[in-house]
Q: What sequence folds into this?
């Protein structure tokens, strides 16, 4: 691997587009946080999703980590409306029919308690009579709005979505809007 490559982990806040170009003056983009030239996100996180975004100028790695054929795991903490029952969890694990495709099997578990995350700005809508729960979902594909569509398809709409890892890479103490270069041990595993 050459020293000319850059690999950056960014904690994408809610309300930030996963691109550097501005399509509307009021929308935040990666350019508002990262002033490193010629790097691009590996995959995307929707405007209303948060968490780990990897950026690099290494095209081959970008392709390898984002193409579904390579089945790199992506783990999300997902706050959903109401408490999913065992049937819903099994359905999420075995595959959900969404539009014209069925999702691959996934690792899904109900978290026993709310994960320790920074507050979201703005906070999710709170409804006193509707409980919420947190799921940990690990997928090997990343279709457009897939996690949100999966939870909605089984009757538990997503309220908050945070990607916490891509393969072995994790946020490791970053706060929303912060970024860092990969450390040497992370770089060895990426190569």
A:
């Amino acid at each position: 691997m050459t020293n000319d490559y850059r690999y950056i982990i960014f904690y994408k806040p809610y309300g930030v587009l996963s691109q550097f170009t501005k399509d509307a003056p009021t929308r935040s983009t990666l350019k508002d946080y990262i002033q490193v030239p010629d790097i691009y996100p590996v995959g995307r996180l929707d405007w209303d999703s948060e968490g780990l975004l990897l950026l690099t100028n290494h095209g081959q790695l970008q392709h390898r980590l984002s193409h579904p054929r390579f089945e790199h795991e992506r783990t999300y903490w997902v706050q959903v409306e109401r408490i999913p029952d065992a049937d819903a969890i099994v359905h999420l694990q075995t595959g959900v029919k969404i539009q014209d495709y069925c999702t691959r099997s996934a690792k899904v578990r109900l978290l026993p308690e709310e994960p320790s995350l920074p507050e979201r700005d703005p906070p999710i809508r709170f409804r006193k009579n509707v409980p919420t729960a947190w799921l940990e979902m690990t997928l090997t594909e990343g279709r457009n709005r897939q996690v949100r569509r999966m939870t909605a398809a089984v009757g538990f709409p997503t309220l908050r979505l945070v990607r916490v890892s891509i393969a072995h890479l994790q946020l490791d103490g970053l706060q929303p809007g912060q970024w860092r270069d990969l450390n040497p041990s992370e770089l060895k595993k990426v190569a």
Q: What stands out?
A: The chain has two domains: 7-68+168-185, 71-166. The chain is about 15% helix and 30% strand. Residues 71-166 form a domain with the Alpha-Beta Plaits fold (CATH 3.30.70.1560). Residues 86-94 form the longest helix (9 residues).
